[in-house]
Amino acid sequence: MAKTALHLYLEKEFGFEFDNPKELKQKLKELWEKDPQKFGDVVTKLKELGDRISTEAGFTISLDDLEPVHELKPKTDDINKALKLQSEIPNKLVDMLHEKGNAFAKMIKSKARGKPAQLMQMVVSPILFADAKNKPFPFVIKNSFAEGLRPEEYFASSVGARKGIIATQLATSEPGALSKELIANVAHLVVTEKDCGTTRGMKYPIDSEHILDRYLAHNHGKFPRNTLVTPRVRDEMKKTGIKEVEVRTPLTCMAKDGVCAYCLGPVGDRKLPEVGFNIGVVAGQTVTEPLTQFVLSFKHTGGLASALRTTGFDLVKQLLHMPKNFSNKATLATVSGKVEKVEKAPLGGWFVYINGKEHYVQSDSEPTVKPGDKVSKGDPISKGFINPKELLELKGIKETREYLAQALHSVYKSQGTDIHPKIFESLARALVKYVEVEDPGTTGLTKGEIVDFDGLRRHIEDKVKIVPKEKAVGKILAREYGDLPPGTEIKKEHLKLLPKKVEVTEHKFKVKPYLPPLQKAHLFNSDWLVGVSRSELLKVLTEGAWYGKTSKLRWYHPLPGYVYGEGFGEGEDGRY
Fold first, then answer.
1. Would you tell me how many other CB atoms lie within 10 Å of the CB of residue 202?
2. Is 495 helix (H, G, I), strand (E, B) or coil?
């Protein structure tokens, strides 16, 4: 590969080589992790180099760059053959035109701007567009935009063009609405203490990127608990033979009314977050900012049929809103046991039998298990995305929080946006915290009522006491302890998950986990101020006044500042 001025500069000044922009990005990331000061110097120098080269090059385009490429034009009317061509031509076209010095091909090849499919539309042919139902429009377009479309080709392409215009409009409205909903429901999550005391976390292989910028959950050889795992620390741990690391995470944090600084870990730097830091707002903003680009990614294809897939935004929205018609949904095992048989259903799809229990797999999916396989309750038995609400009913809060965090992280990473998993873990902790009352017992609650952990606590705190965990077996937890929600009847296997002393209640009641869709969650939040910034404002205010509801929002949550007219953090201990 011919070396550019950028390659030569980085080799000479900093001693590292790369073959493509993705590798350069990874090299810069590693440099930032090892030496932030040097990283700043490199980025500044790169900018200066880019400014100089772009000025000297005087790069521009001309009409010659829009000359139609007739030899690659589709010569078939068969839809399947046309779809195959649509996936083969773009990269072949870029390579061909790059050798001829085409300016558009240079931009695409260098990853500066544009995509191969866009160039194909301009100088070869769009070939196929999508119709209103996201299926290939049954008409092969053979002219390029540079030549001009025939009347029938223009009308065939108009559906895709309209979809692009609509996507542009939705690029700000829908992500903006989701952003408001998400932040309103997680803005109460703040750092409430420095160290919750837990010695539990999540285990990862030593080479996993997930362990970086987290604190050790317990001692690992000569590395004590609360050591921050940096690339340098990881290298030292590998030299001592450590193969697996257990790091702290918001999912196992035992802090009361929030998350502790050590379980959260550094956010944006390598410093311990201060008590009062609002990770809810930071996490909500971090994950919603890229959503606009997720929507625009479809618009930039011009509605081409080969781009037909669920967008990143659709997946994020589905995971948080959990609609009744959950697209590409995986079937979950409702019982544990052995798969007895898998057979096709008469009207399409499949039947999977587990311990005599029939499970239906839809026709747009397919089973991922075979006779003889052992499965646990809640395990997916077909391809597709898991509905978090169904998973919660079958596996509980711990697994649902872990899945939601992992699924969101995977969606963003597939879209080219790599956000640290702790951000998604914080969101999962803030969102999965509701229960439905099955038997109110002596609590004063109502059967069927939906409350969050704080709301449940308020109904049982008159009979709360602190006891050694060994004496807590058979009693009911009064608050959340990591994976264990309030209302859990403590069993012997729970003792390893609990601190030395725990809060229990003498109230007798029964609740089950509940996960409301994001757009309704604020209505069930025990803190009435959470719902003030959302829909149904009149209902929230009226019920708040009628029932004399109070608010515990404090520290750097924005709403009390709006209501009371005080600046963030003012008042005793940063409270309002």
1. 19
2. helix
